[in-house]
Amino acid sequence: MSQNSRTMTLADLRSQRWFGAEGQPGNHKSYRTKQMGYTSEDFQGKPVVGIINTWSDLNSCHTHFPQRVEEVKRGIWQAGGFPVELPALSVGETYVRPSTLIYRNLLAMETEEILRSHPLDGAVLMGGCDKTTPGLLMGAASMDIPVIYVPAGSMLSGHFRGQRNLGTGSSTWKALADFRAGKSDEQTWRAFGEGTARSPGTCNTMGTASTMTALADVLGMTLPGASSIPAVDSTHSQMASNAGRRIVEMVWEDLKPSRIMTRSSFLNAVAADMALSGSTNSLIHLIAMARRLDLELDLNDFAAASGKVPVLCNLQPSGQYLMEDFYYAGGLRALLRNIDQHLDLSCRNVTGGTLGEAIVDAETYEDDVIRPVSNPVYPSGGLVVIRGNLAPRGAVLKRAAAHADLLQHTGPAVVFVNFKDMLARIDDPDLEVTKDSVLVLQDAGPVGAPGMPEWGMLPIPKKLLEQGVRDMVRISDARMSGTSYGTCVLHVCPESRVGGPLALVQNGDLIRLDATNSTLDLLVPEDELSRRRALWTPPPPHYGRGYGALFSEHVLQADDGCDLDFLARTGNTPDPEARFS
Ligand code: FES
Asked: What would the pLDDT profile of 342-393 be if each residue is shown by its tens digit?
């Protein structure tokens, strides 16, 4: 039950500017709504609640959304609202190219403008597949009307020929390495993939989707614990209709994102991210989301939490289990209870209550899945922020998913000038590479690639795979899938395309990674780097026009969240005066 009181009257609702307008403007909205078969009783005098749905036939993670929309609508009707479904870009991670990060920003713009331009008093946001969570919440934060997030939930655990607990991404990357090393045939490898994707829902590891929906939950934007529910569990349907009921009350309470997402709640999310050993993508997304609310959040906040909060979530790719196990072990609420000393429990959520109230009765039922502080999966945070002369503005490493022997490593660079160069040469038998080499990928950043695709887990060269090598130090300005693993230093900032030091690395240069001391250095004298810098020229732009050009010309670097500069800045955007139309 909400602890908030109703502060809004019918006359205060945005939708009344459309439906309540005098004369022809209001009459026009009324008879056009009846054109759709609704009666006056259906919509007059009620809050209008949008359902922003990222379903499409090319988002395999959201295939259950048509049914969930009906469940959300049921809740909205029951609570006295008028539900209207509005489709939005689905950003299916599997299909969208060249990079879903580019379209995160487009979804954020679309969400904000859908909310602004229509007669909506509040909205239910439906997403889950990687970029949809930050995209929807960034747009909603900028618009700042009441919203509640309905996360898609994870797919079922993978099974294949007696092997259980197969994780989307994490297990398939390993199967791919075995296939490339000649340890399995193509038919087996393909069938294995099918065994890892068995139902609607998002990737079942602690990849980007599970991380971002969990962090939306920590931020207070979902019903408490909603992010842990598997997509096809009956409680997921119940959560959807509960969200529909709750959003109507949130409208009357004027419970907006800016009253829920504060700097303290973002610091809670950062702490939870460490305990989850969440996706490296989360750094970019959380910073972008916070900046939409004009809140301070930067890599220093992640570095501080990384030193304090242990990994307690034993999920792939850093651990053993999957999201189904996590839910039945107690889910996110149980995990948060185990790290409550690192959280501000007074932060508010969509219920109107506090985080403390949301987790006070949470229990852990499987303490190997959700570990106590006394028995962590990893003694410090899963993610480490790294700086040095190769990454002056920072980089990130998922150390809990890296090989421990490589966390302090010095080796000679093997440089690929872009992704095509890497694809062309990585399996060349003549490539001069050993297990001690450091693989470097340039031109894979926000502007360079463009959109820093998830290329950061560079494949191990085939000839090393055949020798049994399964991890190497890899460095790039790209991102990596949250389901990936290995000693991959990512998001090197500034990126090589804008002249960052990564652009200056040449074959044979020694690179020193010291994850213990959070440093990454190119061991080349400064006068030599100056000489190279003077000779360096940027490659030509990818786009001459269109959204790609808009993105490339305005995208911020990874440490600033890769938002578009004109969306990240503060400033007034007038709400339309629809009564005059
Ligand atoms: Fe959609 Fe992984 S592909 S969540």
From this structure: 999 999 999 999 999 999 999 999 999 999 999 999 999 889 999 999 999 9
> Measured in angstroms, how far is the CA atom of residue 62 from the centroid of ligand 1?
9
Is the shortest distance between the CB of 58 and ligand 1 below 6 Å? no
Nearest CA to ligand 1 atom 3: 93
Question: Domain limits of the chain?
Answer: 9-45, 48-156+199-359, 159-195, 383-535
Helix and strand totals (H; E) in the chain? 22, 14
**213 in contact with ligand 1, CB cutoff 6 A:** no
Return the DSSP state at 578.
G
State whether the beta carbon of 209 lies less than 6 angstroms from ligand 1: yes
The answer to whether 455 touches 247, Cβ cutoff 8 Å, is no
**Does ligand 1 come within 6 angstroms of the Cβ of 440?**
no
pTM above 0.85, yes or no: yes
Task: Give the distance (Å) from ligand 1 centre to CA of residue 129.
Answer: 5
Q: What's the rounded Cα separation, in Å, for the pair 230 and 232? A: 6
> Residue 202 gets which letter from DSSP?
B
Domain over 383-535 is classified CATH 3.50.30.80: yes
Task: Render pLDDT for 273-299 as a digit per residue (tens, 0 to 9).
Answer: 999 999 999 999 999 999 999 999 999
Considering all CA atoms of the chain, what is the largest pairwise distance in Å, rounded to the nearest integer?
Answer: 79
Pocket test of ligand 1: the residue of 202, 204, 205 to mutate, having most ligand atoms within 8 Å of its CB, is 202
**Four-way CATH pick for 48-156+199-359: 3.20.20.70, 3.40.50.2300, 3.40.50.11720, 1.10.3720.10:** 3.40.50.2300
Alpha-carbon distance 173 to 279, whole Å?
A: 16
